[in-house]
Amino acid sequence: MPLDGLRVLVLEDEFLIALDVEQICREHGAASVEIVRNLDEVEQATFTSEGFHAAILDVMLNGRPTTDFARILMDQAIPFVFATGYIDADNLFEDFGGVPVVGKPYSGRDIIDALAEVISTAESRSGGV
Fold first, then answer.
1. Would you call 23 helix, strand, or coil by DSSP?
2. Distance (Å, rounded) from C-alpha 68 to C-alpha 66?
3. What angle do CA 84, 119, 28 make, to 5 degrees?
4. 10-41 confidence digits (pLDDT tens)
5. Which CATH number goes with the domain that contains 24?
6. In the chain, which residue ranges form alpha helices assigned H by DSSP?
7. Please, are residues 22 and 10 in contact by the beta-carbon 8 Å criterion?
8. Whole-angstrom Cα Rg for the chain
9. Which of 18, 54, 63, 110 is the right S-S partner for 12, CB 3.0 to 4.6 Å?
10. pTM to 2 decimals?
11. Residues of the domain holding 51
12. What is the pLDDT of residues 78-118, one digit of tens each?
């Protein structure tokens, strides 16, 4: 299973999409999934103290860009993907070369394949997630 035993953070403000992504992650082996629906909740997420292995970010949460948080993830070498309806906004992703951008609507396979790819890349660079 591509997410076997991993803790995954999901930044998504659309409730039904967030639940769907959570289910998809669990079906592919995630040990736990934390959903954060606005940027003010990020610091309060339960994973803050114990960390998480990977993340799925909508590029905009309630009209606020998640790019600053994405930069933090990059600095900490935490693998992540963007899952967004802003697929054509190339300027949003200029600083994130190599980070997959999965366009909405997406299939479960699309999001899992993209996440598995960045996790695998991170593991090969560090010797494990």
1. helix
2. 6
3. 75
4. 999 999 999 999 999 999 999 999 999 988 87
5. 3.40.50.2300
6. 15-27, 47-50, 67-75, 90-93, 108-126
7. yes
8. 13
9. 18
10. 0.89
11. 7-126
12. 999 999 887 666 677 788 888 999 988 888 999 999 999 99
